[in-house]
Request: fold
Amino acid sequence: MAMKRSTLYSILTLVAVIAVIASIPWVMDRWRHKEPMFKSVFAGNTDNAPKRVFQSTLAGSWYEADPKALAQEIQGYFKKVEGAPLDNVQALILPHAGYVYSAQTAAYGVKQVAGKTFSRVVVMGPSHRASMPNLACVTDSTHYGTPLGELPVDQGFVEALKKTPCFKVIPRAEQPEHSVHIQLPLLQQALGSFTLVPIVVGQIDVATARTMASALLNLIDEKTLVVASSDFTHFGPNYQYEPFNDNLEENIKKLDMGAVDKIVAKDLEGFDAYLDSTGATICGQSPIEILMAMLPKESQGKLLRYDTSGKMMGDFANSVSYCAIAFTGAWAKGAKVDEAAKPVEAPKEAELTADDKKALLDMARKTIQYVFDNKKAPTSEALGITVTPGMKPLRGAFVTLKKNGDLRGCIGDIFPERSLYEAVIGNAVNAAFRDYRFPQLAPDELPKVHIEISALTPPAPVKSYEDIVVGKHGVLLTKGSNRAVFLPQVAPEQGWDRDTMLNHLAMKAGMTPDAWREGAKFEVFEAIVFGEETP
Reply:
């Protein structure tokens, strides 16, 4: 028997009333916390934005993995800090070794800001593994995670930094680096919640330090804490640095204090010259120099704590030094660097000469032969090829191998992550032995292979696929997690027009041929293409 309409309406009304009653606690909670009740619907669906967490890999080795044990460990370090905290701390220099070695020294710095309110913390650490001349790596993650929780990245700040050419997303620099992550649990324990700006800094000169400082000064404010992550002198055969043979503890401290004096005095040029003249192995030289260029004249520096692993272990044969330094004062958003330290434009890339191109091609061929002979990739020194200024700038590069006119391997870097000559060496190995489309190159094939190199300009986004010029532009297509690239010469070699090229590019990315027509993003780049002479 069919249910009467009046009965159905009564049931629906009862369900609606129950739903409203059930929602009251949720509504009251949102009201108490002054949170919008429908922001996912009416505020751009921000809750559903993709979340990308860069999780620390240091837990369990560099510091405790258990959150409770880690918090207790850090509190233990804080309790041992002596003296009254400083007022108006705006910046810190902190060490970045495993906590058993450096955390007590770091605690002398971080304890200065415990309980203070900072809306943002900028942490700059050096790159220990990736070569990044005059470049700094920013993140594309939305959060950084540690055992003590997740820290949201200040994505607006990062996007603004990327407008300065010195700041780029370079995953190969960020992923293995510990110098930023090591500071975070200490800061979390002291400050609670804050937004994070993580920066991994490459090997920079003084001019670039000022350029980066200027970009940061345009964005920070009085609620920003800046942290430069650095250990000091690395002494001993493990670090290939042994400037003296006796009175090791005394001489190491004297060497470190010479650097500290320059830092506290905010003498950027003096600090840089001191490291050049002594060879002092201060791994965080670059972030320290950026910080020094940022600091206002009124800022006051103070050494809070100094220690060495040599003293802790009772053996200075190999020793690393640790300093905690604080600067007091105030940041002003948009402040300028000192007149004697005006920001300069990033250095322009040197042109590739005919000799440079010939040397790079020779480098690629000798690299492949070196792998055949030695079962490992070479250094430029092992190849006996002089690296010229034109080969040193960071550039994306592809190495292409052809045999009898047919493709035999092609791999490269789209984004500039290493010097051009390093990209050529690395991608010569990749093209010969790691292109999944082909078997590994055999020794008897190398004489029959023709080598071509494409040196790229940095990719830049275009508003529409209609802005792509066939034959001029290489194209990077991205749609969701699907991505693929063609070099500029591909379409002309195949006789494709723009639509046909994009059809093939979409298929290369694992999509249907016409998937590029809606929702896809395009970045274009140009290339200097040169190859070996055909015998």
Q: What stands out?
A: The longest strand covers residues 319-328. The radius of gyration is 28 Å. The chain is about 35% helix and 20% strand.
